[in-house]
Specification:
The protein is 44% helix and 12% strand. By secondary structure, the protein is of the alpha/beta class. The protein has two domains: 175 residues, D-Maltodextrin-Binding Protein, domain 2, CATH 3.40.190.10; 194 residues, Periplasmic binding protein-like II (D-Maltodextrin-Binding Protein, domain 2, 3-Layer(aba) Sandwich), CATH 3.40.190.10. The protein has a five-stranded mixed beta sheet. Strand 1, helix 3 and strand 2 form a beta-alpha-beta unit. Helix 17 runs antiparallel to helix 18. The longest helix is centred in the first third of the chain and has 20 residues.
Length: 450
């Protein structure tokens, strides 16, 4: 009996131990609890997933020059706002003075340490894209259902397209428009310029507004290379054709340059070409500020210069002959071809160039003008007067003219010098306009053949 009892006790103990190890799917009441266990296990797994520590944010390096000299705090604020909206991305940025920027960037790229994202002016963009240094954003953009290119003014967005590939995005821009002295117009009863004006209407108004006895000129534009390529575009001309062949001595270009000279030498509505006064730095700006020029083509960066003028003034689109054409000086943001953080870089590029928060910070700080298309987003900019017609600045983007860097962007400086040399000869009457442009055509063709 004792032996039998011992066996029974051992069996009982083993059963208890077994029960402690597992309830075999039964609850304390002997009911099946397999569903409950499964639910608890799933719940625990979900909890573990949701409580997994967040991945460390990726860091992208950004090199910039436009913030230098007064907008460093604006940049800092924009970066902080971006990081708040995108906690998975950190931005390590460096501000470099413009004079040192190209050297700094070239050194980094040569050393295999290119920043993930960086600024480039349009002319340098063409050079860097031609050297295959930039990331093709086209696949990323195509996959981004939240992105709409129409957020930007179309021609401004297309400016950073290279050979059919979107290689950057316009960050900000400046352009040139027609400034006019409303008081001088009112005194002569002349209608203000509007978008319908051509060179003919400009000349008609200038002849009425010019007052030689009081030293007042009807209209003014500088005579130099940048004005040349914009003015010939207003007459349907250009420096290159669609295939990249120089067309400098086309008849449209000859007529346009003659018009530039005739305003001074034939119609006497502009200062004489040999007027040393207007060859001095800021002489034209000072003359307008003094009420001595009725109309002038100036860059929008001069708005602040004229804010305290003692007369009323405003801006309008520039008159063209066969079409409108306006300068477009753009800074864009591009990505390094070697970046390992393409998605993060694209988030940053979108925010920095078009997000309403970013745009508002730029406008409030008076930093630069983004090339966005939404008037509601730009409303704060439009309200910063003078000038009253601030929207003209954005409207000019519909007829922008890109710097004609041509098929060899690295020769841009030499191209300018070659054309300028001949324009100066025509300006002072040493040779005819046709001879000057024939010479320039040959010089540029020779330059591109090397």
């Amino acid at each position: 009996m004792v032996k039998q009892s011992g066996i029974l006790l051992l069996i009982a103990a083993m059963a208890v131990i077994s029960a402690c190890g597992s309830n075999n799917g039964n609850d304390s009441n002997g009911n099946s609890s397999s569903t409950n266990a499964s639910t608890n296990g799933s719940s625990d797994a979900s909890a573990n997933e949701s409580q997994e520590p967040a991945k460390d944010p990726v860091t992208i390096k950004y090199l910039t020059y436009t913030a230098n000299g007064g907008q460093e705090n604006t940049l800092k604020s924009m970066v902080e706002a971006f990081e708040a909206k995108n906690p998975d991305v950190k931005v390590d940025y460096e501000v470099v003075p413009y004079a040192d920027y190209d050297t700094k960037l070239t050194t980094l790229i040569s050393g295999g340490q290119a920043p993930d994202v960086y600024e480039l002016g349009y002319e340098n963009f063409r050079k860097y894209a031609g050297k295959d240094l930039l990331l093709d954003l086209t696949p990323i953009i195509s996959a981004d259902s939240s992105f709409d290119p129409s957020t930007y003014k179309k021609l401004a967005y297309d400016a950073f397209n290279y050979n059919g590939k979107q290689m950057g995005v316009t960050e900000s821009f400046s352009d040139v428009v027609l400034f006019y002295n409303k008081d001088l117009f009112d005194a002569k009863g002349v209608k203000y310029p509007d978008a319908s004006w051509t060179w003919k209407e400009e000349l008609d108004a200038a002849q009425k507004l010019a007052d030689p006895a009081n030293g007042v000129w009807g209209t003014y534009s500088p005579f130099q290379f940048y004005e040349f390529y914009k003015t010939i575009a207003q007459n349907g001309g250009g420096v290159f054709d669609a295939s990249g062949n120089p067309t400098i001595n086309s008849q449209a270009n000859i007529d346009a340059v003659q018009w530039m000279i005739d305003k001074a030498e034939k119609y006497k509505v502009s200062p004489a070409m040999n007027d040393d006064t207007f060859s001095q730095p800021d002489a034209d700006l000072n003359a307008f500020m003094s009420g001595k020029i009725a109309m002038a083509r100036f860059g929008i960066w001069n708005f602040s210069r004229f804010k305290d003028a003692k007369f009323k003034w405003d801006i309008a689109l520039e008159p063209g002959n066969t079409q409108k054409a306006h300068h477009f000086f753009a800074d864009g943001i591009v990505a390094s071809k070697d970046t390992k953080q393409a998605e993060a870089v694209w988030k940053f590029m979108k925010y920095f160039t078009s997000d309403a928060d970013s745009v508002n910070k730029r406008i409030a700080a008076g930093w630069s003008v983004p090339a966005v298309a939404d008037d509601a987003v730009l409303d704060a900019y439009y309200k910063q007067a003078p000038p009253e017609s601030k929207k003209v600045v954005i409207d000019a983007l519909d007829s922008l003219v890109l710097p004609p860097v041509g098929p060899k962007p690295e020769k841009w400086g030499e191209l300018q010098a070659a054309v300028t040399e001949q324009l100066d000869k025509a300006k002072f009457g040493k040779i005819s306009v046709k001879e000057a442009l024939d010479n320039a055509q040959k010089s540029v063709a020779d330059l591109l053949s090397k």
